[in-house]
Design goal:
Elements (H helix, E strand, L loop, with lengths): L1 E10 L3 H12 L4 E4 L15 E3 L4 H5 L6 H7 L13 H20 L3 E6 L9 E5 L3 H13 L3 E3 L3 E8 L2 E9 L2 E13 L8 H7 L2 H4 L2 E2 L7 H7 L5 E2 L4 E2 L2 E4 L7 H4 L4 H13 L2 H10 L10 H4 L3 E3 L13 H4 L8 E6 H5 L9 E3 L3 E3 L1 H7 L4 E4 L2 H8 L3 H9 L10 E11 L1 E2 L2 E2 L6 E3 L5 E7 L15 H19 L1
Parallel strand pairs: 1-2, 1-9, 2-6, 9-23, 10-19
Antiparallel strand pairs: 3-5, 4-5, 7-8, 8-9, 11-21, 12-20, 13-19, 14-15, 15-19, 16-17, 18-19, 22-23
Length: about 475
């Protein structure tokens, strides 16, 4: 059953999909956007909200001289993964348009603070959204609806429809049943990565990754599968970011995430961060520590150990512990250390974790702001009781620690999980975001953006994946408008 004819059908309702839809609609095209989840957002909504861009208005206001050329060159300061394709054409496209993308987002009412430095970048160019990453989805979705984009959630793409040698639509399942949505100009895949796609991970990255869970459990590589069914190829399929050890977000109320992602709230926060004394802002800044924070491996260098739900040490912490955590009961562990180690993580440079460009978290911050994962006790026996593990097992684990634990109090942080954060394998695309076959020819009518259309461009460090998502989506929408 036909369910409408549009100029463009976008598959995926995260940041890149909304950017495609809005840009195409602004050009007068009739656009439908489908999202399999009950609400929009994708991985963008789970992110800190960092966008790395050079030559921005915020940089100029801060007196920072930067350029796309400098940004392009700084990519080479990051290590290149073994066997990786490095698509310099797409890198050039990204750095040349990232600042304009940031300004475009700002014109929609999205506010940023920064820019913040991040090594090895030679200039501060990381911009963080206010009040949280949900602001980008909120503002883009509102703008899409205002332009008449037909947004359909709880709608899953089941297959691409080809007619006369081109992709002409998408077969979907929705609460109305299975239907066909037609596209005159093109279907755009913006379905994110395959970090939760067990089959694709096993095939492209290897069995050890297939056994690890994903931060975004709905990133199953749907777009990759759809495109491959019509002859597309994946570049850098073996590149996986993770597994990374992370603390889960607290289950209770997080007032920062509850702030309405409106222009007024964002501007008020930006004004406060620019003009109020930092001490007055600490309660706001520290609340960002309720994200999925990654503990530093320097804890293990200092002698901290990992124990499981039974209190047993189960890994070489200086090896690859992130692969061993999912094998434990309930898939998590705890970081254990004594007062001597803890004292080394109370002040710069001994932070336990960081929210990029926002805050550093020390042991005292976990004591105050993350009581859900912080345990402190005057003795090993008391710590065992607080963890609910056998004292004998925990004592044996501590006795086997690489350094002697002799200074109370004793600490435990956790539960600590291990997740794949993202995958960098993307569909091969042209500079116009046409999906390419294995022979390099475009598949007529099929496009991809964001991580689904990463196309071999490497995106190291913070803020580049989100920057690419919005930039590639915006440019893809512009290309479709030219057809």
């Amino acid at each position: 059953m036909n369910d409408g004819v549009f100029d463009v059908v976008v598959v995926g309702g995260g940041g890149s999909g909304l950017a495609v839809a809005l840009t195409a609609a602004d050009a007068g095209l009739r656009v439908a956007l489908i999202e399999k989840n009950p609400k929009l957002g994708g991985t963008t909504a789970l992110s800190i909200g960092s966008i790395t861009a050079a030559g921005t208005a915020l940089q100029r206001s801060a007196g920072i001289a930067d350029s796309a050329d400098a940004h392009f060159a700084d990519f080479d300061l990051f290590p290149v993964p073994a066997g990786a394709v490095d698509n310099l054409l797409l890198r050039r496209l990204y750095v040349d348009h990232a600042a304009d993308t940031l300004h475009w987002l700002m014109s929609l009412g999205i506010a940023f603070h920064g820019p913040s430095p991040e090594a090895p970048h030679t200039r501060p160019r990381m911009h963080n959204v206010l009040p949280h990453s949900g602001a980008t989805i909120h503002c883009l979705a509102n703008a899409c609806r205002a332009r008449g984009v037909d947004i359909r959630v709880a709608t899953t793409a089941r297959g691409l429809v080809e007619e006369a040698g081109r992709v002409a639509g998408v077969e979907v399942d929705s609460p109305r049943g299975r239907t066909l949505i037609r596209a005159r100009k093109g279907v755009v895949l913006t379905t994110g990565d395959y970090s939760a796609g067990t089959g694709l991970l096993r095939e492209l990255a290897g069995e050890r990754y297939a056994a690890i869970g994903a931060l975004n459990t709905t990133s199953t590589g749907d777009g990759h599968g759809l495109a491959r069914s019509v002859g597309a190829r994946v570049l850098n399929g073996h590149l996986v970011e993770g597994p990374q050890m992370r603390f889960a977000v607290p289950r209770g109320f997080n007032w920062v995430k509850q702030l309405p992602p409106t222009r007024f709230v964002a501007r008020a926060l930006r004004f406060a961060m620019a003009h109020l004394p930092r001490a007055a802002l600490l309660p706001v800044i520290r609340m960002y520590l309720t994200a999925h924070l990654q503990p530093t491996t320097k804890l293990f260098d200092a002698g901290a150990i990992l124990v499981n739900r039974r209190g047993e040490r189960f890994t070489d912490e200086r090896g690859s512990p992130a692969f061993d955590i999912p094998k434990q009961d309930e898939g998590h562990g705890y970081i254990v250390f004594d007062g001597a180690i803890g004292a080394r993580f109370e002040r710069w440079p001994g932070f336990i974790s960081t929210a990029p460009g926002i805050a550093y978290a020390y042991l005292s911050d976990y004591r105050r702001y993350r009581r859900d994962i912080f345990r402190e006790a005057a003795s090993v026996a008391a710590l065992a009781r607080r963890l609910g593990v056998a004292e004998e097992a925990l004592s044996r684990s501590i006795a086997a620690a690489p350094v002697a634990y002799a200074r109370p109090p004793y600490y435990a942080l956790g539960p600590l999980y291990s997740w794949i954060m993202t995958t960098d394998g993307g569909l091969a695309v042209s500079s116009r975001f046409e999906v390419l076959r294995s022979d390099g020819d475009p598949i007529p009518g099929l496009y991809a953006a964001g991580q689904a259309g990463q196309g071999g461009v490497l995106l190291p460090g913070h803020g580049q994946h989100l920057g690419w998502a919005f930039t590639s989506g915006r440019l893809c929408g512009r290309e479709l408008a030219r057809l």
